[in-house]
Write a structure and sequence with these properties.
Chain B: Its main location: nucleus. Chain B: Keywords: mRNA processing, mRNA splicing, Nucleus, Spliceosome. Chain B: This is Splicing factor 3B subunit 5. The complex is a heterodimer of chains A (1323) and B (91). By secondary structure, chain A is mostly helical. Chain A is 61% helix and 0% strand. Among the domains of chain A are: 192 residues, no CATH class; 99 residues; 146 residues, Leucine-rich Repeat Variant; 104 residues. Chain A contains 64 helices and no strands. The longest helix of chain A is centred in the first third of the chain and has 27 residues. The termini of chain A are far apart. By secondary structure, chain B is mostly helical. Chain B has a domain of 49 residues. Chain B has four helices and no strands. The longest helix of chain B has 18 residues. Chain B is elongated. Chain B starts with 8 loop residues before the first helix and ends in a 17-residue tail after the last helix. Chains A and B meet through helix 24, helix 62 and helix 64 of A and helix 1, helix 2 and helix 3 of B.
């Protein structure tokens, strides 16, 4: 076959033309087609209505096919210059372009399923962690050497701190003035401008120098509240831009001190810089296009130009396009994506609302802007992309590559000779909807945009597709092939590994750095074994590498915005391990580590918090108190609340690690700080966090701690007063119920406080009082309660949610104290309490709901059941379901605690009435109503008799309901009230119910069927097997097929019912039926749920008891031949249970006989059954030991290790059983066969062996076993010594006293007296 | 076979548990330490069994309290000073 290139291109053109014609007269509701254009690649195509029907096409509108467009926030408002927009003429209507823009955004179909990075799920507040600086090394004051000039000492840090503070003050003042309008900007053109820029850079640096990027994912605040943004408002726009570009200046690895940025040049400091650094590393995801602008001084034309540069599209997702291929292929010509070469994926046309290409460099006025663009344009190779971009790029390129048409050469290669190209028939219509095309030929990569390195194995590679890895842009496989591949976001940290270098040319530092990098990469991306070895090596060599190089690589990784939970966990683990090794070497890096670890303390994930605590406490132990204090001291009055908050928590952890007393003097000083209220605030917060963290461990120091914080109550700063009150609340909660003496000094100020303050301050004070009252004795508590109640009642009306919660809590605490009179509460509190809180609105919020229920129940304890229930019982008929639930739960809790004895007939009627109403009206699926109904009926007991007919009527009516949920609730309710019905002697009714339920066993909804079975079981249990209707002999055969049901709830309820019948009513059913059930039960042993398996096994026991063990046993022994391990294990347990219930002698012969079956699974099963049996029968084993010894000896001589293991286990259980029955001869014989197994490698076998020796220690006596061990304790081979020492240690732990007599007599040496002379004493 | 991580896990736990108590040993212990433990165990046992204490008191012709006291004292370096650290001692 041969076809010239010319021919083929003709052919393609022809097809294209046809396609275009066809589209032109295609249906009209297609926006794309109407415009005579093709569907852009990646845009939402249409489904063929012939194939998919029209429904699908219409429905597509219901799908949200893109995630929200970039937040059009402030930056974009005044952007998008109109000039250039006109300059470029696009044929496409606006809508189409928007659609393309949306669709071609990276809409990840798996976005919901993908595990989110930590940065993505964090709140704004948590994100502030990213803005902290990994500060430069600090001087280690304990090392006697000239400190590195780069390290900062305490003085420098404090100076810097003061500088920041001052700056903050100036900024605030500027802002104020700008607001009030008396800030005038004088346009001093160049000089001051430049200076400002320079000066401005420092703070920016300070915030952004951290690893990773400053503000991830565009969700970070665009405008930082800083000097710059304020001045921008005040009309100097240049400066604003400076801050907007977060110059992530030196990459992650080295944290240059912000102060002397210029002096300690990166070049000197970072020998590992390569060409990557020349193109400034930048998180493209953020607000700007111009990475690293902060580093050079751009020649600026004028203010206007700057504004335009800023106009580049701001939202991360849109921008990614632009960054990748500034030279996007305009839509015009090609319908299919540009295939050739595969290097530039074709991108969809630009979009007027985004800044078109032209607008990026308006008029070429800004050379820098263009230059910056220029760097991006050609070489995707050289510019590190953000992970997202990389992902999109790779994905698209992959699709392009795979879907490019086969070339002639390839076709030639594929086909045997003799084929030629046919002209398509005239009626051939090529498929024209790209989306259908994608569906028609599923590509392996389709849709799996997430997950780096995911390649379908075995996909034949076509030449020209280019390298693997990130779509041919970058090779992600490090040169060392043993390393795992990089993820796109790892590039900036691990790029060096991608280069092939000659190890011999590297300096020692570089070599170390490379090694650390390799280990970290293994830990981060590797398989578990890789991770393990990486972790081990990095730990072993920690001191060799030194703290600096290690932390300089680890900490930036931890600050990375694309970090995931697992990766963070691993990195934290690395830090934990190396901390142990480095010990005091970490001192200069304490602050860096804290910056990275502190955010973990406020993470929403519990385990992250625990990890954070562990690291910080280890750090404190390694670095020592003095270093910790001097390092964290400057952060205590940091202007940023986030820093102070995390620092306070870290300090609390330090206190728990090093002891509270060590920290007390420091805390005292901090809380008395005159200079800044922030310091006092933080100091008090530390105490609060200590109380929360350490609980009752604060008790010994309570007095001191209270004294430290007490002055805060009278502080002039509202915030300090509030935190003090909260701190006292935390201390009181932690020390409850002790320690009221310590709080004596604060009672008065708190007291005054609750009268003086309003709002938030008052809430905190009330909280403190609330927690203090339970500590007081009755008399005081009563007095204080009366006083505080006035204020509480006043605050009942407060609209503040927080206040409401606190008030409820305090009311609860007050009412719980002894000294409060019920009459007082009844008269003074209750009216306003119900008025303020018992409304539907409270039921809406979950926390309010809980608190209100708790408080009401607490009050009911005081004033009595009737008082409370009478007030709310009518609300059971409220129209709001949530509110009804709250009422029901409250009544249930009250009745459960106090019973229903006080309830009079009238109230009883109301209650049942309400119950029935609420029960029937429920729509939500939870157990509140059911529980309430059950509890209340149970409490009423015999008094419920009058209402049973009514209730049963309702139930029967609802059992017949169309809705499955209603039927299920009805059946559940039967299960709850069956005991009450029994008490009320309503047997006839129950029998009736039983029959009805029996008729409903054909139920098809498994949930309902499960409930029906549960109800039957409940009735069965209450009225007994003999009186049960339907009779058991009818019921059970009906249950047998249900056992086959695969639904867990059905299985569980059914097996319970069958088990109950087998236990108590087996005589009603024929043996054959029971055998049938036995076979069904074997299937149930496969169940995933343990309770089902356990119930099945127990049922075997009952059945065996009922019909004799022989048939059951035969079934079970047969089952030992199956393949599945779980089945076999369960079967062995069942055999053991059968032999326990039917006495071993009925079973043992059969199973010992079965041991002769030459099949390893069966033999293992028999042994295991023996092992379980001996475990269950205990001392009964004495009658069988001599019978089984030959079998066990045989098993212990088996070649198979597992076999011996089970045998050893059986011996262990046997030996424990026969303790004290004089079977020592048999046991010694067994021990002789067990003992040699100590040399095995399998830990399982060794574990069983240790267990068996332990059993022998008990039954043979420790001295016998000691004699065995003495032979090997000092054996020259460690392999022999090691296991024997384990046994010896068990002897020491178990019978230290007894083996005194058994120790060998050891002769004296010249220096040592080894004889124990007391043992030679004779009278 | 279990994963490398799991291997020896239970046994490692056992070892850790055992090592928390005095008197236990390990494969690298030297015989002096071991014998010292034996001596201490022996005296503790003798002190805590009243019959044994009486027996020794009679033999040594001391009061029971004195005997107890002596036994306690003998627990301090019961075998004399430990031998110099020499790996060959262990053998």
């Amino acid at each position: 076959m041969s076809r010239s290139g010319h021919n083929s291109s003709d052919y393609a053109q022809e097809l294209n033309r046809k396609r275009a014609n066809l589209r032109a007269d295609d249906d009209d509701n297609d926006e794309n087609n109407k415009n005579g254009n093709k569907v852009a690649f990646g845009a939402a195509g249409n489904f063929d209505t012939d194939v998919y029907g029209s429904a699908r096409g219409n429905r597509s509108e219901m799908y949200l096919d893109s995630i929200g467009m970039a937040e059009e926030d402030d930056v974009d408002e005044d952007s998008a210059p109109s000039g250039p927009k006109k300059a470029i003429n696009y044929a496409q209507p606006h809508k189409f372009i928007e659609e393309v823009a949306k669709a071609s955004e990276d809409v990840d179909p798996f976005a919901d399923t993908r595990s989110k990075t930590i940065a993505e799920r964090q709140s704004k507040y948590h994100e502030r962690a990213q803005r902290r600086q990994i500060s430069p090394d600090r001087v280690d004051a304990f090392v006697d050497q000239t400190p590195d000039h780069r390290s900062r000492g305490y003085a420098e840090v404090m100076k810097d701190q003061m500088f920041q503070e001052e700056k903050g003050r100036v900024e605030r003042e500027l802002a104020d003035r700008a607001k009030s309008g008396d800030l005038h900007i004088s346009h001093l053109p160049r000089e001051p401008e430049k200076k400002k820029g320079r000066w401005d850079e420092t703070p920016q640096n300070a915030e952004n120098l951290g690893a990773g990027s400053a503000t991830p994912q565009g969700s970070a605040p665009r405008k930082r509240l800083g000097f710059s943004s304020i001045s921008a408002d005040a009309a100097t726009p240049h400066v604003a831009r400076w801050d907007e570009t977060p110059a992530h200046s030196m990459g992650a690895a080295d944290a240059t001190p912000s102060v002397d940025k210029w002096s300690s040049t990166p070049a000197a400091q970072t020998p590992r810089r390569n060409r990557w650094d020349e193109t400034p590393k930048e998180n493209l995801g953020d607000g700007s296009m111009t990475p690293g602008w902060g580093m050079e001084t751009p020649a600026r034309g004028g203010p206007n130009d700057d504004i335009k540069i800023e106009d580049t599209p701001s939202a991360s997702k849109r921008r990614s396009r632009w960054d990748l291929t500034p030279s996007a292929t305009p839509a015009a010509g090609s319908a299919t994506p540009l295939q050739a070469g595969g290097a530039t994926p074709s991108f969809t046309p630009s979009h007027p609302s985004q800044t078109p290409i032209g607008a990026m460099t308006p008029g070429g006025a800004t050379p820098i802007g263009t230059a910056a663009m220029g760097m991006k344009t050609p070489a995707a190779h050289q510019i590190p992309m953000t992970p997202e971009q990389m992902q999109i790029y790779r994905w698209e390129k992959e699709i392009d590559d795979r879907n490019r048409p086969l070339s002639d050469e390839e076709l030639d290669a594929l086909f045997p000779p003799g084929y030629k190209v046919l002209v398509p028939p005239m009626n051939y219509i090529p498929m024209r909807t790209p989306s259908r095309k994608l569906l028609a030929t599923p590509t392996p990569m389709g849709g799996s945009g997430a997950g780096a390195g995911f390649f379908m194995p075995g996909t034949p590679e076509r030449d020209g597709i280019g390298e693997k890895g990130v779509g041919g842009i970058l090779d992600t496989q490090p040169k060392n092939a043993e390393l795992p591949p990089l993820k796109p976001d790892d590039m900036q940290y691990f790029d060096k590994l991608l280069m092939d270098v000659d190890e011999s040319t590297l300096t020692k530092e570089e070599k170390n750095e490379r090694e650390i990098m390799e280990h970290l990469l293994k830990i981060k991306n590797g398989t578990p074994p890789m991770r393990k070895s990486g972790l081990r090596k990095i730990t072993e060599n920690a001191r060799k590498y030194g703290a600096g190089p290690l932390f300089n690589q680890i900490l930036p990784l931890l600050m990375s915005p694309s970090l995931e939970d697992q990766e963070r966990h691993l990195m934290v683990k690395v830090i934990d391990r190396i901390l142990y090794k480095l010990d005091d070497l970490v001192r200069p890096y304490v602050h860096k580590i804290l910056v990275v670890i502190e955010p973990l303390l406020i993470d929403e994930d519990y385990y992250a918090r625990v990890e954070g605590r562990e690291i910080i406490s280890n750090l404190a132990k390694a670095a020592g108190l003095a270093t910790m204090i001097s390092t964290m001291r400057p952060d205590i009055d940091n202007v940023d609340e986030y820093v102070r908050n995390t620092t306070a928590r870290a300090f609390a952890v330090v206190a728990s690690a090093l002891g509270i007393p060590a920290l007390l003097p420091f805390l005292k000083a901090v809380c008395k700080s005159k200079k800044s209220w922030q310091a006092r605030h933080t100091g008090i917060k530390i105490v609060q966090q200590m109380a929360i963290l350490m609980g009752c461990a604060v008790l010994p120091h309570l007095k001191a701690l209270v004294e430290i914080v007490e002055n805060g109550l009278d502080d002039e700063q509202q915030k300090v007063r509030t935190i003090t009150a909260l701190c006292l609340a935390a201390l009181a909660e932690a020390s409850s119920p002790y320690g009221i003496e310590a709080f004596d000094s604060v009672l008065k100020p708190l007291w005054k406080g609750i009268r003086m303050h309003r709002g938030k301050g008052l809430a905190a004070f009330l909280k403190a009082i609330g927690y203090l009252i339970p500590l007081m004795d009755a008399e005081y508590a009563s007095y204080y309660t009366r006083e505080v109640m006035l204020i509480l009642i006043r605050e009942f009306a407060s609209p503040d949610e927080e206040m409401k919660k606190i008030v409820l809590k305090v009311v609860k605490q007050c009412c719980a104290t002894d000294g409060v009179e019920p009459s007082y509460i009844r008269d003074e509190v209750l009216p306003s309490f119900f008025k303020a809180f018992w409304n539907q609105r409270m039921a809406m919020d979950r926390r309010n709901y809980r608190q209100l229920v708790d408080t009401t129940v607490e009050i009911a304890q005081k004033v009595g059941t009737v008082e409370m229930i009478a007030r709310i019982v009518d609300d059971l008929k409220d129209e709001n379901e949530q509110y009804r639930k709250m009422v029901m739960e409250t009544i249930e809790n009250i009745v459960a605690l106090q019973g229903a004895n006080e309830i009079d007939a009238r109230l009883e009627e109301q209650l049942i009435d309400g119950l029935l109403y609420a029960f029937q009206e429920q729509t939500q699926e939870d157990s509140v109503m059911l529980d309430g109904f059950g509890t209340i009926c149970g409490a009423l007991g015999r008094r419920a008799k009058a209402y049973i007919p009514q209730i049963c009527g309702t139930i029967l009516w609802r059992l017949n309901n169309k809705s499955a949920k209603v039927r299920q609730q009805a059946a559940d309710l039967i299960a709850r009230i069956a005991p009450v019905m029994h008490i009320c002697e309503e047997e006839k009714m129950m029998c009736h119910m039983g029959v009805i339920l029996y008729e409903y066993l054909g139920e098809e909804y498994p949930e309902v069927l499960g409930s029906i079975l549960g109800a039957l079981k409940s009735i069965c249990n209450v009225i007994g097997m003999t009186k049960m209707t339907p009779p058991i002999k009818d019921l059970l055969p009906r249950l047998t097929p249900i056992l086959k049901n695969r639904h867990e709830k059905v299985q569980e309820n059914c097996i319970d019912l069958v088990g109950a019948i087998a236990d108590r009513g087996s005589e009603f059913v024929s043996a054959r039926e029971w055998m049938r059930i036995c076979f069904e039960l074997l299937e149930l042993l496969k169940a995933h749920k343990k309770s089902i398996r356990r119930a099945a096994i127990n049922t075997f026991g009952f059945i065996a008891k009922a019909i004799g063990p022989h048939d059951v046993l035969a079934t079970l022994l047969n089952n030992l031949k199956v393949q599945e391990r779980q089945l076999r294990v369960c079967t062995t347990v069942a055999i053991a249970i059968v032999s326990e219930t039917c006495a071993p002698f009925t079973v043992l012969p059969a199973i010992m006989n079965e041991y002769r079956v030459p099949e390893i699974n069966v033999q293992n099963g028999v042994l295991k059954a023996l092992s379980f049996m001996f475990e269950y029968i205990g001392e009964m084993a004495k009658d069988y030991i001599y019978a089984v010894v030959p079998l066990l000896i045989d098993a212990l001589m088996e070649r198979d290790q597992v076999h011996r293991q089970i045998a050893v286990d059986a011996v262990a259980h046997l030996s424990l059983g026969v303790y004290g029955f004089g079977c020592e001869d048999a046991l010694i014989h067994l021990l002789n066969f067990v003992w040699p197994n100590m040399l095995e490698n399998s830990p399982h076998l060794i574990q069983r062996w240790v267990f068996a020796c332990e059993g022998m220690r008990v039954s043979l006596g420790p001295i016998k076993v000691l004699q065995y061990t003495l032979q090997a304790l000092w054996h020259p081979a460690r392999k022999v010594r090691e296991p024997v020492w384990k046994v010896f240690n068990n002897l020491i732990l178990g019978s230290a006293d007894a083996i005194v007599a058994g120790y060998p007599r050891i002769e004296n040496t010249e220096t040592n007296e080894y004889l124990r002379y007391e043992l030679d004493y004779q009278l | 076979m279990a994963l490398p991580g799991e291997r020896f896990h239970v046994l490692a736990q056992l070892e850790h548990l055992q090592s928390k108590y005095t008197g236990t040993g390990h494969a690298d212990m030297n015989r002096h330490e071991w014998i010292v433990n034996q001596h201490r165990d022996t005296r503790a046992s003798q002190m805590s069994h009243p019959g044994m204490t009486s027996f020794i008191a009679i033999v040594e012709n001391e009061s029971r309290a004195r005997t107890r006291f002596n036994l306690l004292n003998r627990m301090i370096q019961p075998c004399g000073p430990p031998p110099d650290k020499n790996p060959l001692d262990d053998v």
